[in-house]
Amino acid sequence: MAASDPHAPAVDLAVAMVTAPSTASDWLIVLPVVVPLVTGAILVMVRHATHLHRPLTALGLALLFGIDLMLLGRVVAEGPLTMMMGAWKPPFGIAFTVDLLGATFATTAAFVALVATATAGPAINTAERRYGFYPFLMLLMTGVTGAFLTGDIFNLYVWFEVLLISSFGLLVLGSEKAQIDGTVKYGLLNLVATTFFLIGVGLLYGTLGTLNMADIAAKARAAGPEAPLVTIAGLFIFAFAMKAAAFPLNFWLPASYHTPTATVSALFAGLLTKVGVYALLKVTVLLLGNQTGAYTDLLVVMAAATMIVGALGAIAGSDLRRILGWLVISGIGSMLIGVAVGSPGALTGSIFYAVQSMLVMTALYLAAGVVEARAGTGDVRRLGGFYAAAPLFSGVVLVLLFAVAGLPPFSGFWPKAILVESSLAVDRPGLAAAVLVSGFLQTLAVGRIWLYVFWRGGPEGTPDGAIDLSGVRVIENPADRVALVGPVIVLTAAVVLIGLVPTAIGGLAEGAASGLLDPAGFTARVLGAPAP
Amino acid sequence: MEPALAVLVGLFFATAFYLILSKKLIRILLGVAIMGNAVNLLIFTAGRLTREVPPIIALDAYTPPAGAANALPQALILTAIVISFSFFAFLLVLAFRAYQDLGTDDTDAMRVAEPVADAGPPQGY
């Protein structure tokens, strides 16, 4: 083609482009985004054949989980991997860069989504399927996975918007009054947060002249004091803290997360706030790690306040899913410790906590969905008698509640122990105390849930010792029962496994933390040679 | 040119925040629309302003001529315009639906998801 063209440019494309063809193993890096995107598109095409939605979604998510596992295996073996879109050489073109942090989060997210929705037959009613629950779900997974795997900061903004618009769709699905109310607040506040993120990206590009994360990490450390990077880091912290629902930017979460279907709540609680935490870790520690020292004290106060306020909100709540919303916020506080302190130990604890929190919070929201399906209400004053009606299920929920509160030997205990230890190691005893006090308050909150909903014989006013099961419906169809309770049990099994064998996830978290603290190594992996 | 545009961006942001701080949904949405444009102008300004040198690379050269316009901020803005426009459209429909279903556009009165008359947590067992 080029030879026959008389105007062929006398330039060597190899200067700016990768000329070697991509190998099949390179495609592994983008497949986690391609698979849910294609599945979502197919689901939109077959939107009238609602009976196909669930099998197709289960297939897509199983594929996604398998690919994520393979990718995780490769990242563990080889370190960060990069693929350039359009074959431009870095830092030009959009990079997909998978490090251990992103791969771990993406794999956990795919597992949670697969377990939560593969069996979500009876939990999703026909109207919700017809209005596109499953396509929205797959596009949400596209956005979440893309955010975890991208290596370009503007591309991260685009994935944030992809997952945001899908989450709007899921949140408002069903159009109950409470859902519309919740979506107005969720939508506006999250849009303001992503806009602040975009302001930060624009200013960062104006200052450093690059959007590639590895290039930013190198240039931010080489920049002189006249570059306004501390201000830009502040904008990023504001935006991502709002996404992660950190106090005092958390008020959209308890206003909206309890309004949609339980499956949607469960996915949001498991995945969305963690994307905020991920972005916070990536941008403030890896990219601008040398610029965020000015915010350390602020972040420490924010982390402590988020933990305590979340736990207090959980104690003061009376609606089951709203209580869980406050527990999500309390957990976000623990994940902020790593961002605030920035030591390898604290980062390990934060990442570990985030991974196990994805499993635990999703399982708890699904369990709340089971309770609401059987009792028809989420008001703890009108709930009761579940231990008499379903002792095994009650035991499973108790395990999950203990894991949230950080009681040994369940999964929440190990990261909290690491966080206390590393807070003391950097001479922040206040932060360590906040972890312990919030753990105590969380124990109170989850103890109240279990007492009211499960242990008590019936709704408020039931005499001591009496059993009143009139408000607890029995789910007749055994298939429906398995579909509702099955995901909770699978996720709880994972939680118990992490609690008993913490070294596997702990090792991944430790590797991810050391990757975050090694920007020079990250840059060298992505850009090829060390920066001149 | 940059100082003038910077002041304009500041004015846009000030207007947007003033409107977003309002209680009425429709004013908040107008604020969101203005904020989207403020960010677009900000990216445009931050991405270097030049006069009338198109970013076209000569046949035998590797780089565009000195002082050429930067095409990347324009690509970023194009993406941001599309996204902010679609979000604005969605939120506008949502606000109208909220007005229909909840009977108000005052965010203080929107307490369906978080009822004011909540009796509080149970006090005993």
Written description of the protein model:
- The complex is a heterodimer of chains A (532) and B (125).
- Chain A has one domain.
- The model of chain A has no long low-confidence stretch (mean pLDDT 88).
- The longest helix of chain A is centred in the middle third of the chain and has 32 residues, at 177-208.
- Chain A has a two-stranded antiparallel ribbon with strand order 1-2.
- Helix content of chain A is 70%, strand content 2%.
- Chain A is mainly alpha-helical and 532 residues long.
- In chain A, helix 15 (344-375) packs antiparallel against helix 20 (478-500) and helix 17 packs antiparallel against helix 19.
- Chain B is an all-alpha fold and 125 residues long.
- Chain B has 3 helices and no strands.
- Chain B has helices at residues 2-20, 25-46, 71-102.
- In chain B, helix 1 packs antiparallel against helix 2 (25-46) and helix 2 packs antiparallel against helix 3.
- Chains A and B meet through helix 7, helix 8, helix 11 and helix 19 of A and helix 2 and helix 3 of B.
